[in-house]
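Retro notes, structure queue

What went well: the backlog is down to a handful. What didn't: a couple of records were mislabeled last round, so from now on we paste the full input next to the output in the thread. Example, using 2-amino-4-hydroxy-6-hydroxymethyldihydropteridine diphosphokinase from Paraferrimonas sedimenticola:
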Amino acid sequence: MSLHRIYISIGSNIDARHHVTCALDALAQAYGELTVSSVYESEAVGFDGDNFLNLVVGADTQDSIEQVVAQFKQIEADNGRVKQAEKFSPRTLDLDLLTYDDVVCDTPIELPRDEIDKNAFVLWPLAEIAATTVHPRNGVSYGDLWAAYNKPQKLWKIDFHWPS
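Corresponding output:
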């Protein structure tokens, strides 16, 4: 079996430091060595709520897309994530598969994830750890996408140490 490179977006705004640490621990247990971006704090988008902590992680896996997504749902559930009808709402943990190699698809999920080049809290950390990797849909590197990004969003790096 071949290894597939995946990039994962992690976000939390409920007991965020705890849940981000739990997510990193669970992902390391599932996938081994992780490439971890800086952790960024941002204001909630689309609703009034506590600030979010966000980061992106790279990992290698032999799992299928379906297996990866199922693993993420289990990690979210293990951390008290309650799926709500509202898209913009507080959450203990949100894990999103951003890319799976260069796969472009709509099922079982949309890949690459649409918000990569729409949200600074996804694009900045992704560009940090995968600057030369090319977006499979538009052919532009994540570093170049970030350099051209000009949508206003308050986002800043924070001091966060994960004992990997």
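Agreed that this is the format going forward. Reviewer comment attached to the example: Residues 34 and 59 are 5 Å apart (CA to CA).
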